[in-house]
Design goal:
The protein is of the alpha/beta class and 767 residues long. The protein has 24 helices and 26 strands.
């Protein structure tokens, strides 16, 4: 076989890079191109590796800060020398363009940079926070939303997102519950696949899409006490059956990169955990993408007492399976010496660099490294993106309670007292990580005024809420409080004014909850009560006797036990994003019929956490007549169960039928169920299928979600839904057998509209 000379290869790369400078990117998306084959990618990677010095190879593993904080003082020099592979923490298109030109035109081999950013639920157009999109129980919602986010990010020069976050979270005290899909691995896996497809398209390199990163691997959501960054202690059974399935789903969907987690898993930091990064990820799953640490975690191995010094930290992280070091500079500084000493081999370095170069080739960066900034603004906040942000928000909202048909309000309402510190908020309705939402969200007041131009709508704040301990992310929220807090007397005066307004109006709409910086990273809580004086405000307004609608805005469930007994209508709006006010108005007046369902079990109190539906059955099952509560102050059951959500219409779910009463191991059966809209409005229902294995080599959860489908039905319309139960749904990791097993046992099946569904059937699996 003829070998291409290094000089010819260098010339080819140089020419391709310079030609790319003249190529315009349509709306910021990559020019349509034929996806390279694996053989072509491998050939190009090997050609580059043969030319690279050790320093240039290690440079590809070096991710530096584009922001001034934590940036190396010789940033430009490192890029020009080819000793930087990627950059993060910059969303300045001009800066990104400058550094890409520097890398492509000045470095010896002209290798382009990857530019990463936390594009979590939107870029310029902000979509509902991830837990809200999971509440849609419709994978098409996050897939389409993240597709828009990818296009907008790419238009400004960002080609790598540090999302989706797929951590299972069963403790609402943990602030980052807002970034995931809730408590269930089956629902979480569906949302993980959808987001990967949204960011990357059908495959990595799809024009107009970017490189996705599934994070945080693994078990981050099980931190002790719901405290961010604290250790997680997870047995292998729970790890494999609960916490890993969404990651496996993302890997199977072709995600191009994976981020290790901050915390220790069973006393071993995740960023140096050989069991996670090598045994499971590379050996068992065959992952071919790159592994990046979370910010500074290589250095933090020293802080945590796991590594003796930076050199030891670099050795342990890299040996465990880390490829790219986020912002600490430890691999860049320490790997050369480790290679010279023979502790790290050239082969290990080459293997890590292959993953980085392959991603750049698949993304088409060598051919099209630059972004046409003249077309950037046209790609941002397009009418199509704004329209879908509104649709996504309405599909994500959950009607928790609606006594006496308080909702919808209808369009003939005379006067509305719009009350609450979030009723006129904008930035706080975007939620965390919406850092590019330069146009503030539509407020609830704006949305209602546009929706009801003939109604008398009067606003009263009713006191303020603010976070008492500052977050390191406060600067990301332009609306963060900079003024001194109100005095107790001033707050009480505002509450009194709000109560008076409610008395003089036909209906009171209270918009209460959390500010954007009250959930997310650095935002764990030890109480789930409404912060500030909002509970007092709510109770005083309800005492007026006027109809009350409570709209909750937050990134986590809140303890609203009193409201669940005294407020006739409660809507969980989450943090809906750019079109928040319009979407909330759509739901309140009935132009949109809420059909979302809870992706978490809703607690009565923070004392119940961690709380989840798929517990094992104890010696005193809840349905046993001799059962007594484990808490003498109240029940251990959730306020609202996993999967709960009401509608302005009604549905019946009936005729659960199994195609077989008995199957052999490895076979499958079909479960069918009929759902009918029995009300007078069109609406959506989410039919859910749960199973329980009655016996086996381990005690199995009392119920496990194994199928769901959201359907839209006209009044009187029926539809038969079909679900498959086979090896994938019936297998689990058995700790005693140290293997995935499908056991010959009896199974219960339930179908309905929440995890408390009572429509039942049964079948048996035989050898």
């Amino acid at each position: 076989m003829n070998r291409t000379s290094p000089a010819v290869i260098r010339l080819s790369v140089r020419v391709a890079s310079l030609l790319a400078a003249t190529v315009f990117l349509c709306a910021g998306a990559a020019v349509a191109q034929t996806a390279p084959s694996q053989a072509d990618v491998d050939k190009r990677v090997e050609a580059l590796l043969k030319q690279m010095t050790l320093e240039e190879k290690i440079g590809q593993l070096n991710q530096i800060s584009g922001a001034n904080f934590l940036a190396p003082p010789n940033r430009d020099e490192l890029i020009a020398k080819g000793e930087v592979g990627s950059m993060l923490w910059s969303n300045d298109p001009a800066q990104l363009d400058k550094y890409q030109h520097l890398a492509v035109e000045k470095s010896r081999l002209h290798i382009p940079l990857l530019f990463g950013l936390d594009v979590i639920h939107g870029y310029r157009t902000v979509f509902p926070v991830p837990i809200a999109m999971a509440a849609s129980w419709d994978p098409a919602v996050p897939e389409k939303a993240q597709g828009f986010a990818a296009q907008e990010a790419l238009a400004s020069g960002i080609n790598w997102t540090f999302g989706p976050m797929v951590d299972i979270a069963r403790d609402a005290r943990w602030g980052r519950i807002v970034e995931g899909a809730g408590e269930d691995p089956y629902l979480g896996a569906a949302m993980a696949r959808a987001q990967v497809r949204g960011f990357q398209g059908p495959s990595l390199g799809t024009p107009g899409r970017i490189l996705a990163t599934v994070k945080h691997f693994a078990g981050y959501g099980a931190a002790d006490g719901g405290r961010d960054y604290d250790p997680s202690s997870i047995g292998e059974s729970a790890l494999r059956n609960v916490y890993l399935p969404p990651f496996k789903a993302a890997v199977d969907a072709g995600v191009g990169s994976l981020m290790s987690a901050y915390m220790e898993l069973n006393d071993v930091p995740a960023s140096a955990n050989h069991f996670l990064l090598h045994d499971i990820l590379r050996t068992e799953w065959g992952f071919k993408g790159l592994v990046v640490t979370d910010a500074l975690t290589t250095h933090d191995l020293v802080t945590r007492g796991f590594a003796r010094d930076d050199k030891d930290a670099a050795y342990k992280a890299f040996s465990a399976g880390v490829d790219v070091d986020m912002a600490s500079g430890i691999l860049h500084a320490q790997l050369p010496a480790l290679v010279r000493e023979g502790r790290i081999s050239q082969q290990q370095i080459d293997d890590a660099v292959r993953y980085v170069l392959a991603a750049k080739i698949r993304l088409g960066l060598f051919e099209h490294p630059y972004t046409d900034l003249s077309r950037m603004n046209a790609a941002m906040g397009t009418p199509a993106a704004r329209d879908y942000a509104r649709v996504a928000a309405t599909r994500s909202m959950v009607l928790l309670r609606n006594e006496n048909r308080t909702l919808p309000l209808g369009k003939n309402v005379g006067s509305i007292a719009l009350i609450g510190p979030l009723a006129n908020a904008d930035v706080d309705l975007d939620g965390g990580w919406g850092v590019q939402g330069e146009t503030p969200a539509v407020t609830v007041e704006e949305g209602l005024r546009k929706k009801l131009p003939n109604a008398k709508i009067t606003y009263a704040r009713g006191g303020e809420i603010r976070r008492t301990i500052a977050s390191r992310f406060d600067d990301f929220f332009p609306g963060a409080k900079k003024t001194p807090p109100l005095s107790p007397q001033e707050n009480e005066k505002e509450i009194d004014a709000a109560v008076a307004l409610a008395r003089s109006s036909d209906v009171a709409v209270l918009v209460l909850g959390e500010l954007a910086n009250m959930s997310g990273e650095y935002a764990s809580r030890y109480t789930l009560e409404l912060p500030g004086l909002q509970e007092e405000l709510l109770e005083k307004v309800v005492a007026t006797g006027k109809p009350v609608v409570l709209v909750l805005v937050s990134g986590r469930p809140l303890a609203v036990t009193w409201a669940s007994e005294h407020v006739p209508a409660i809507v969980m709006a989450w943090q809906p994003g750019t079109e928040a006010g319009n979407a909330i108005a759509d739901v309140l007046v009935g132009d949109a019929n809420p059909g979302g369902k809870l992706p978490v079990s809703w607690p009565r109190s923070a004392a119940q956490e961690p709380l989840y539906y798929s517990r094992v059955i104890t010696q005193y099952p809840e349905d046993d007549p001799t059962y007594r509560s484990r808490y003498w102050e109240g029940p251990m059951t959730p306020l609202y169960p996993f999967g709960h959500g009401l509608s302005y219409t009604t549905f019946s779910v009936r005729d659960l039928h199994l195609s077989k009463s008995q199957i052999k191991s490895g076979e499958s059966l079909e479960a069918t169920v009929r759902v009918t809209n029995t009300g007078s409005r069109a609406g959506d229902e989410v039919v859910q299928l749960y199973i329980h294995q009655k016996a086996g080599s381990a005690s199995r959860p009392r119920r496990e979600l194994k199928g769901f489908e959201r359907v839209t039905l006209a009044p009187g319309e029926s539809k038969t839904l079909r679900f498959t139960l086979g090896k994938n749904e019936l297998s689990y990791w058995s700790q005693s057998r140290k293997a995935w097993v499908e056991e010959a046992e009896e199974f219960d099946v339930w179908a309905g509209n929440s995890s408390t569904a009572d429509l039942h059937a049964a079948f048996r699996v035989t050898e």
